[in-house]
Specification:
Layout lengths: L7 E11 L2 E11 L4 E5 L6 H8 L7 E7 L4 E3 L5 H6 L2 E3 L12 H9 L7 H6 L2 H20 L15 H13 L5 E5 L7 H17 L3 E5 L3 H7 L2 E6 L2 E6 L1 H5 L2 H8 L6
Parallel strand pairs: 3-8, 3-9, 6-7, 7-8
Antiparallel strand pairs: 1-2, 1-4, 4-5, 9-10
Helix pairs in contact: 3-5, 3-6
Length: about 260
Amino acid sequence: MDAMTAVGLDIDGVCLSFGGNRVLKDVSFSVGAGSITAIIGPNGAGKSSLLNVITGVYTPDAGDVTIRGRSAEVDVLALKPYELLRHGVARTFQNLELVAHMTVLENVLVGRHLRFRAAQIRSMLRTPGAMREERAHRRVCLDTLDFLGIGDVAHQEVHGLPYGVQKRVELARALVTDPRLLLLDEPVAGLNDEETAEMADTMRLIRDTGTCTQVIIEHDMKLIMSVADQIVVLDFGTLLTQGTPAQVSTHPEVIEAYLGSQASP
């Protein structure tokens, strides 16, 4: 995959079932490189299941998932979840997956682990080369925390921090992997209005770098209408429609099935 360049994503005919319950039914859509695509739908629509297919947690019954760079394509379904990181795919989780009694910096350094090049023995012996590399990675993590406005809590343990700050810690851990494709599962759930606005600004800043494509699952329609380039609507595992926020917000079936009074930005 091309380094430091956003990638596109193609979902083609994805089907997924659990014990006879069809969760995803022939879902197909494409995501443009460098864009923000929001996946919306009522609870049980298959949104998180689709994200789990993209990240290799679930294996679909049928279909293809491909990430597109300028010079190469990668079959996502042929990779193990941990291998996706090396191809620039990172994610956050609906429920926080942080180590509570580690510091913010230590949690974020976990995301940077795949970029370490020093051999394990050299790292254990703390050779000069290994120490230089560790300082460089720590600097990347600290700069990312500063970018997200939480550099002042880098050395505090996560468990004592407000929920909104913990959300940013998880985002920082994903960002330090140098993602080309970033998947965000309900990034503003549980946040207040001010924190939600700050997260929206962060998403726009990430898009403006041109290095990262974002796919988000979210119920906050005001946020989605303000940041998304494309909206994909799922309903009971089926693709109902897709389009720009303006197109989707006036779609009669979408309004009836999900948006309702939330349709207006």
